Structure formats: structure tokens, C-alpha cells
Amino acid sequence: MLFPDYRPRRLRQSEAMRRMIRETILTVNDLILPLFAIDGKGVKNPIDSMPGQYQLSIDNLVKTAKTAYELGIPAIMLFGIPEKKDPLATQAYAKNGIVQKATSELKKQIPDLVVITDVCLCQYTDHGHCGIVEGNIIDNDATLDLLARTALSHAKAGADMVAPSDMMDGRVAEIRDALDENNFSHVPIMSYAAKYCSAYYGPFRDAAHSAPKFGDRRTYQMDPANALEAIREVTLDIEEGADIIMVKPALPYLDIIHRTREEIDLPIAAYNVSGEYAMIKAADKMGWLDGEKVMLETLTAIKRAGADMILTYFAIEAAKAINQ
Ligand code: PBG
Ligand code: ZN
């Protein structure tokens, strides 16, 4: 049917009609809020490159998590900023580490909020890499045991889900085994499966003090030019036991989210990363675009591409906009 018989505008003439034919509806159920835990009391350090985001001591972290929970956001993703760093990232798997303490407090105060913990070493190593360093190389196999210990310590602290973001080969299987052998077979793994080596992580590295001291992450994170490789990475993680797979970043990688959706029947998470957040905030502050509208359009686009859930620093703002 062609014009003038077919007129697409007929179904766009009122908000009610537009609502009837809307294909993608963003809901609070889709949102996961990343939070940064730091030692101390009453601490709320603003992160300059991420306006509205803070390093939070556990008391304030629980307050923010409660706000998210009361808005209907089902889950948070927890990152830790430790007091001490060393070559073996010992604070990553310390029983009294910052993530372990924050997790048990969150589960005590807000039992129904899903606490997902980021499993990586880069915030905890003195060199800032996601794995153990031998000379100038990142030693894949030597790192696996430490990642498994980190994930297990999070589960012991009460984490509902663990999310390895290191990009070492074989870590999902190693973590699955460690959890299963210790009576945590019920704890799901959300794997950062297609994680690209991205300049969009810049503001996060300010927030989490996790920039590498030498070199970069190109030997373990994916080359932004590759798409087929993402399917191989995702497939491997599923074979190793991942329950949810993640694509990261989100907006510059909508094609990867879409391809993954076509090929994979597991839930897909997309990480709307710090740089994506910072760009919108900066342009909004300059008066160059309407930050709230761009936020909602962006999150809707990520869902339309095929994401089942979105990790985003906008979670609270978006939930407020959706709820009103
Ligand atoms: C570290 C990690 C990074 C992010 C999450 N976990 C950064 C990196 O790989 O350097 C990025 C999150 C963001 O930019 O919002 N494993
Ligand atoms: Zn890392």
C-alpha cells in the first residue's frame, strides 16, 4: 500500500494513539544503578567528571540504594575503592574489604534489593591493571584464582550476583567452579562478555582510581573495530556458565547489542558507561541539549537494540522521569 492510501501519520496524531503502537517501553525494571563504595563515615565525594555521582561511605551508600529501591529499581552494581593497593590486589578478596562490608550492610538494610558486585582487580592493584602483572605482561592464568577468590568472598558477604569485568580468558568457568564448590551454586554470574577497550571509561577511572599506571588494556579488552569476535566472546562465556551476558559500552555499540540479541537467547545487559553519562551531562550544562530528553531517548535506544537491562548512572533520574 502506497501514499495516498497509506499514511503513517494517521497513527501518530495523538499521544493516546502513539502510546497504542509504541514498540519499546522503558521501565524501572530495566535499570541497574552502579555505585562506588569508599571507607569512612558521612563521606560523599563528588566525582567531577560525573556530575551527580559520588564516592560514598557505606552509610551514604545505603541511603542512595534505598532511594533507588523505593523508586522500583531492582538492582545495584557495586564497585569498591580500597584504602590500600598492592601487586596482588589483596583488598579485592579480603573478608573485610570495602565491597564485602558494603554488601553485607546493604543486604541487612535492604534485603530485597539485588546486589551485584563487580569482580575485578584494577581498583585493588597498585599498577591499575585488571590482572596480575609479570614483567610487562598481564598474566592470564595467574589471575584466575584471585578472581575466583574475589567472587567467592562477595558471595560469602551476601552478594546476589557477581559480575566479572576483567576480560581474562577462562574466568567465568573458574568463578562458577569456586561458587559451586562452596555452596553458592544459586549465585548467578553476569559476565562482562563483550567489553571493549574504550576511551568512554575515562570518568569511571577518575571515580574508581583504576587507571593503569603503564600501558593500556588493549591486550585483554576487545578491539572496538570487531563485531564477530563479540559473538565468540559471548558464546565462550555462556559455555563457561554465564547466566547474563553484557555488552559494554552501550551507545557506541548498539550494533553489538543487536547482533547478540539475534544470536543469543540469554538475558542481555548493556552498560551505559561513565563517558556516555558525562557527555550528556556536559552538553546539558552548556545548554546545548535537553539532558533529560536525551537521557530517555538514549536508554530507550539501548533497550530497542535488544538489551534486557541497562546499567546506568542515570538510573535514579530515569526512574523519577518514568514514574511521574
Ligand atoms: C574495570 C571496570 C571499568 C568499568 C567497569 N569496570 C573500567 C575499565 O575497564 O577501565 C567502566 C565503567 C564505566 O566507564 O562506567 N574492570
Ligand atoms: Zn578491571
What does this entry look like structurally?
This protein is of the alpha/beta class and 324 residues long. It has a single domain (26-323), classed as TIM Barrel. 39% of the residues lie in helices and 18% in strands. It is built from eleven helices and twelve strands. The strands form two sheets. Strands 1, 2, 3, 4, 5, 8, 9, 10, 11 and 12 form a ten-stranded mixed beta sheet that branches. Helix 3 (98-109) runs parallel beside helix 4. It binds ligand PBG and zinc ion. Ligand PBG is lined by residues 118, 120, 122, 130, 165-166, 201, 204-205, 210, 217, 273-274.
| Shape label | globular
Share of helix, binned: 25-40%
Q: Which ligands, by name, code or SMILES, are bound?
A: ligand PBG, zinc ion
Largest sheet: 10 strands, mixed
**Count of DSSP strands:** 12
Instruction: Please state the average pLDDT score.
Output: 98
Radius of gyration, CA atoms, in whole angstroms: 20 Å
What's the number of domains?
1
Parts with pLDDT < 50 across at least 5 consecutive residues = none
- The CATH class turns out to be Alpha Beta
Task: Briefly note the structural class of the backbone.
Answer: alpha/beta
Beta-strand content estimate:
15-25%
What is the annotated CATH architecture?
Alpha-Beta Barrel
CATH topology: TIM Barrel
Secondary-structure element sequence?
A: HEEEHEHEEEHEHEHHEHEHHEH
Instruction: Please give the count of helices.
Output: 11
The CATH fourth-level homologous superfamily: Aldolase class I
> End-to-end span in angstroms?
39 Å
